[in-house]
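Methods: example folding runs. The two proteins below were folded one after another, and each record is reproduced exactly as written to the output file, sequence line first and structure-token line second.
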Amino acid sequence: MATVQTSAAGKKVTRPTFISVSPEVEIVPRETVTGFYSEALILPCTFPVDSSWDLRSTLILWQRGIDVVHSFYCSQDQLDRQNRHYVNRTSLFGQEMAGGNASLKLDRVTVYDAGMYTCSVNTNTGSQKKSFAVKIAAFYSEPRLQFSMLTDGVNLLMTSDGGYPSPTLQWLRGNSDITNQTQTRLMQDTQTGLYVVSSFIHFTEVTNSSLTFILHNKPLGQDIRRDIQLYSGKSEMHEESSYRYHEWFILIPVFLLLLLLLIIMSVLFVFITRRRRREQTKLNAFTEMRHPSKVQILNGKSSMCL
């Protein structure tokens, strides 16, 4: 519907309004829709159409509370009243509007998009309103385990981030629930709104046992389950000392063998060197015997030529 007003110049000006009187009003029950962080979310909304349906008389208004998310009238999008939180992130399916599709596509979903949304549709054949809750969720990352050995026991710290909403944590030791012995810290990123969760537990007496860490993200049905094996310090020390003893037991014979080879090589080197020297001395003596010195008399003087 539209209202007609008269301007100061006396001309009639037609302005659209968000309020209209329809022959019938249909209220659709509330639903719940879950969106994935940083992905696109489609909020479904349909309305009945028949042969008398007219696009120019169709008004579609999406709201979250009192904030305008997206509006359509006069056969086109009207975004001058759109809340700035949704700028460049909303669109309708214009080509499917003739089939009664008033669904909204919301791009790059953030955790701050959660809330109660309402789709209001007014046409020349009737009006209807649909409200539903929108929840946003994000998967938590693979948990990271950090441990530190202390004189009085051991500390375990399990950390996971990038998730939403806050998860449920559980620790098991064997079949016993030891969650009440842990300390959990939850931090929220001021920009993305995503959570970082850390769970800390301290054991004063370490015995051979099995631990299980469980993270549950209910909206997404995400369950992360990680098993941790603990071994007593005495067993570890015994295994370590046995390993070192075995290691030295192998290395000592190898060292002795190398030393023996070095001695043998040194003796051979000395023997070969001396033998070569004796052979060289004999060779020199033999050469002198075969080539004696020659004496020439020149001008009554003697000279020796080798």
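Second run, written to the same file directly after the first:
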Amino acid sequence: MGRFSSIHRTRGYKVFECATNYASGQLHGYRWMYAKCRENGLRVRKEDVRLVLKELDPRGVSSRQAGRLRRRRYFSRRPNFIWHLDSYHKLKPYGICINGCIDGFSRKIVWLNAYTTSSDPKLIGGYYMEAVQRLKGCPRVVRGDLGTENGYVRGFQRFLVSTHQEDTLDSYLEGASTANQRIEYWWGFLRRQCMEFWISLFADLRDNGLFDGGFLDKNLLQFCCMGLIQDELDDTSQVWDAHTIRPSRNSREQPVARPATEESPAKETKLVLSMVWWFPCGSSKTEPECPEKSFSG
């Protein structure tokens, strides 16, 4: 008990302060909180963070320990071979729509934006083109759902990465949103780490008669909360891209490293997770050459 008291005095309050920077910090598990501490310059042990959270938030620890998800097998050839994009609709009844895209191999967040709509194909197409311009390349494949909001992305992708008749894989794939595995899993992660707070807050406003779903109420929430939610999305994606991905039991081919690193630590993986395989705009190549710098060691 004396050891834990020392930990609590020297490090616990710093961890608690980091947890309460945002109201949704109460949803974080000890691994995610450890990553946030490292991002904020706090040099703490993961075990110390676990003990502090267990003492400060026993109810949250118990709720996170209940139940485990049995995942399907997933495989992607390399970084930027496939991007998964989708919209998150849990806040849509309150006038806030979230759209995101994730790289299938490295699990790096390509974009994550909140706006008043996610049904405008010009808006989603703009997200895609901004990412292509920022990263100076496009993926081999984009996976989206069957909605009309992805019409511009489909056209842009098929124009930038043309395919031949003998190609068995189209440059744009579409299907049911629930089968878009990478991004659907990440939406669950996003809800656990920050969106659950906002969903509960807005639901309380509605249940107490303070939100009727009208134009004025939606605009008030957008004016007051849109910037805060976008800040949390940026913070979540930043910490996600900096955290170390744990080994997957379902796939030995998936890397164990940080999504945003340009050079993989030798102890973690020999695969580089930075965006090094690219299709230049207008290229019709189906298999780009693998540059020598893409491997370390």
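Comment on the second run: The radius of gyration is 21 Å.
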